[in-house]
Amino acid sequence: MTAPMRMFPRGDRLPKPEEMMESPGAASERSARAWRELRILLRRHRGHVAIGVTLTLVSRLAGLVLPASSKYFIDHVLVERRTTLLPPLAAIVLVATAVQAATGYALARVLGVAAQRAVAEMRRKLAAHVLRLPVERFDATQTGILSSRIMSDPDGIRNLLGSGLVQLLGALVTATAALGVLFWIDWRMTSIMLLFLAAIGVGVGYAFARLRPINRERSVEFARVTGRLNEALGGIRVLKAYVAERREDLIFTRGVHRMLRLVMVTISGWAAVGALTSLAVGAIGATLILAGGRAVLAGSLTLGDLAMYALFTGLAAAPLIQVAQVGTQLSDALAGLERARELLDEPTEDAHVVVGAPRARLIGAVSVEDVSFEYRAGVPALRHVSFHAPAGSTTALVGPSGSGKSTLLGLMAAFHAPTSGRICVDGTPIAEFELRRYRAQLGLVLQDTFLFDGTILENIGYSRPDASLADVMRVARIAHCDEFIERMPDRYDTVVGERGVKLSGGQRQRVAIARALLADPSILLLDEATSSLDSESEALIQEGLNALRRGRTTFVIAHRLSTILSADQILVLDAGRLVESGTHDELLALRGRYARLYEQQQRATRNRFVNPGEELTAST
Q1: In the chain, what are the domains?
Q2: Catalytic sites, residue numbers
Q3: Dist CA 472 CA 467 (whole Å)
Q4: Do 456 and 510 meet the contact criterion of CB atoms below 8 Å apart?
């Protein structure tokens, strides 16, 4: 019996913490990424950080006044009954409290704003970098995962820059000063207390080492679940057509439960650290009662000394307690910085390109020289393809599904680099052009028409944002968009919906053709540009495309033969190889692969039936 197809992502079992422990080298590399990014972050916002540190120091020093005043209040006011000291002590405490309140407010404003700016800046930086990644990165990754990483990974910065690090630094300064006072009051009791504080420190460090991989895995799982959810929402019509709501709900539920289990492990870990901290604080309290009480009874400490010692003990333990309380936030923030730096370290598509700008206007002569290409190693999509397309000529690409037609257009658009061989434009390899300026001279209409969730005007004008309304209307007439636009109440201001869902397939394709026309390209790439049009609409648009092709080098993957018949050359691809080339008449005279495909389509047309496996232009 055939095993059922697995519909759910793997990883239902939650890995144990020891299974998620990385090798020392990998852990060191990830930590180095996080700390490097943190240094960059602090250096970029050093002004705000410096102000924050100054305000924190002032606030912490002011915070020492109240515990220090307890000795004088108990020993000199309560015991010695020196009531004249009450007003100055109260005034000093009041001023110190006011200073703390003012610096605390200023600190929240300064670091809060800095943290939000840092988050926004990191998101912008990640988005800009992701948009420059190679196309194969997007082919291999759900867009929802990338968008989740852009929005979620930098979010923890607010915990680091906003309050976490600066407040922790302030607590360390306070703890250092407090330890000095404690040793001055009673070095023996302080030495015992340090053992308990060390126990807290060891527990916090161990928790960080064990839980950081889990926090990272939680971020990965969040991105995975978000990506799948975005994919389901984007394909909502397919989902509903196949009654898959229950299936997708189960997939999402399993992902959410995996995240929940990871969160529960993290919460349990930090709860254990909190329990250890409570035990250590209780032990410190017991030490104060036993050792401090005996010292007071023996006369080596006053009541005021003991009270001040107890308060300063709390200040010394505060940093470790604070880390235990905000450990999850700090761990999440560092994991986010690791993942952000990991993404930023990925090479962009133009990272290794020799910067050479094409001339102001390409002539458009294209030479494909012994080009082979593999999406996966050992599985060739193109094999030793060579041909020349003179400037201003039209080249048609035909062949069965999987023959490499769309792949060849993708290489010309520099979406991928040939595995071997090269493609030259006007005698210069594409790899030596600056991609941005080269692609600015391309016009592209893909088989899978994509429109943005904006107006028709915005979608047509996307290829040339500075174009006027008159320019947009001109290309809309050529592409015969004006026929349906004029019937809409908002005309060019009509919102097309996500991916152009409010337009028909033919209308979307006409808008895409108009967008390519507006770019005024030197090289035009048409991947079944008229496949979603009826015969009448195609005939109208073909007139515009014929006018557009004049003076431009055009490559066409055609659904029907109308464009192929007028092409200057036709290239027949089969299994990634160029098997025939010539004009329509020349190829028919050969009585080879093209002639058989042509006869099959003609016979199918006469019978009003087309076998998809035998179409001339089934997509690759």
Answers
A1: 17-344 (1.20.1560.10), 358-441+557-620 (3.40.50.300)
A2: 528
A3: 7
A4: no
